[in-house]
Amino acid sequence: MPSTLAPSTRLVALITGAGRRRLGSHIAHGLAADGMDVAIHYHQSREEAELLVTELRANGVQARLFQADLRSRAAIEKLVASVVATFGRLDVLVNTASVWRPIPLEEITELDLQEQFDVDLKATFFCSQLAGLQMVRQAEGGVIINFGDWAWERPYPNHAAYFALKGAIPGLTRSLARELAERNPKIRVNCILPGPVLLPPNSDEVEQQQLLQSTLVQQVNRPDAIVRAVRYFIAEDFVTGVCVPVDGGRTIFAGEDR
């Protein structure tokens, strides 16, 4: 994976929310296969995170676990400092930590909205702020990759709290790209808007077929597409402040008129 980052040094990536067997773990495998050392963040899924680290080390890279409750800025500050103390640098931050659960509009409470805010927006902001300021001090800069959701432009029912916060990620991405580049022009911030790249847990065949039919390319369950998008953002030094849907065309096509 060609990159302008620290060409003579092994790159270090921090992936938030990678303890669970979702997108973060796939990204971790991809970056480890590229020879990057990987810091795996988890909150509660320690057993899954430990298994992931064991798998990553089989690629001959350093992989370490870091526990943190990302609802706390102090915990995020400690997380970033621990990663830098362990590896000596931080080149890539991938913000995949998120809360996703359906709640009917009538049942959304203040606590529900606060949880979505804390994990989906506040954590992304402070992880990016603190990692980005570390990258400012590095001559080679660094790369931050945020995760939004394709459906913030065309939201579906029972996720009003989720989309309210995920919808802010594109604006945050553009703002961070401007702010950090003014401090170090070698820092880039971009965003991925995933579609049905992972099937929902316990989804049945009917639901899987519905998801398949909702894409233009008639494909689902493609975490490898996300990994390639992450690699692109790391390698391409002329792209910053953009949000790219990786959704099989679902943003523009719901399947109802096929």
Major sheet summary line: 7 strands, parallel
How confident overall, as mean pLDDT?
Answer: 91
N-to-C span: 38 Å
Structural class: alpha/beta
Question: Shape from CA axes?
Answer: globular
State the helicity in percent bands: 40-55%
User: What's the CATH topology label?
Assistant: Rossmann fold
N-to-C SSE string, H for helix and E for strand:
EHEHEHEHEHHEHHE
Level-1 CATH class name: Alpha Beta
Radius of gyration: 18 Å
Number of domains: 1
Sheet-strand content, in percent, reads: 5-15%
The beta-strand count equals 7
Strand order of the largest sheet: 3-2-1-4-5-6-7
CATH superfamily: NAD(P)-binding Rossmann-like Domain
Q: What would you note in describing this structure?
A:
The chain is α/β, with parallel strands linked by helices. It has a single domain, classed as NAD(P)-binding Rossmann-like Domain (Rossmann fold). Helices cover 42% and strands 15% of the residues. The protein contains 8 helices and 7 strands. It has helices spanning 23-33, 46-57, 73-87, 110-136, 160-166, 169-183, 205-213, 223-235; strands at residues 12-16, 37-42, 63-67, 92-95, 142-147, 187-194, 243-246. It has a 7-stranded parallel sheet, sandwiched between helices. Strand 1 (12-16), helix 1 (23-33) and strand 2 form a beta-alpha-beta unit. Helix 1 (23-33) packs across helix 8 (223-235). It is globular. The mean pLDDT is 91.
